[in-house]
Amino acid sequence: MAQITEKTLVIIKPDGIQRSLIGEIVKRFERAGLKLVAVKMVVPTMEQIEKHYTLDPSWRQKNGEKSIKGYQDKGLEPPTDDPLEMSGMTLEKLKKYLSSGPVIPMIWQGLHAVAIVRKLTGGTEPLTSDVGTIRGDFVLDSYERSDVDKRAVRNLIHASGSVGEAEQEIEHWFSNGEIFNYRLVQESVLYDVNLDGILE
Ligand code: ADP
Ligand code: MG
């Protein structure tokens, strides 16, 4: 069962910082009731980025299939039919994208943190990300255009895709001493069974 201590990793990518969207992004997670338990700014190395995306051995296959489907759904020819070749090209572009400036890794905690953050983040390609999501509301990009420019799709943030992925990614970006265990007063309203602490 989902725990109220579930954690997820978010990284504000270099474009998110350059677009002055740090506050807006943080606000969206904060107002949903999630708790920020770790945050820092770093310029990641290429090695750190490659490791981040390959912690999950199935990422290469899944990312390749999703990208190819993204083209096919729009009646476009993908650059290759091979998912592994597709994601290999994307990984090289991601290393350049994420090492181009400072990024902000953060850990958000709360009930269903992983799924809630993914929902608020929106789909990978801003062209088709839902309206109301961070990627749908604040940026415009597509696989088609990023391909012509030979770069990664710019979509402002990273968010862990599953609880298992989140655990590995948190360990990759943070040491235990950087993660805080503290109480937030609003948690008594979010999680108390009887809401019996309100009336005097
Ligand atoms: P998500 O970030 O939504 O979990 P993925 O893990 O599949 O998506 O991909 C990681 C990142 O790689 C994306 O956020 C995006 O910046 C970039 N990306 C993914 N697919 C492509 C693609 N086909 N072309 C360019 N960039 C891509
Ligand atoms: Mg992902």
TrEMBL record:
InterPro entries: NDK-like_dom, NDK-like_dom_sf. Keywords: Kinase, Transferase. Transmembrane segments: none annotated. Its EC number is 2.7.4.6. One of its GO terms (molecular function) is nucleoside diphosphate kinase activity. It comes from the Bacteria. The keyword Transferase applies. Its cofactor is Mg(2+). The keyword Endoplasmic reticulum does not apply. Residues 5-181 form the Nucleoside diphosphate kinase-like domain. SUPFAM superfamilies: Nucleoside diphosphate kinase, NDK (SSF54919). PROSITE patterns: NDPK_LIKE. PANTHER family: NUCLEOSIDE DIPHOSPHATE KINASE. Belongs to the NDK family. This is nucleoside-diphosphate kinase.
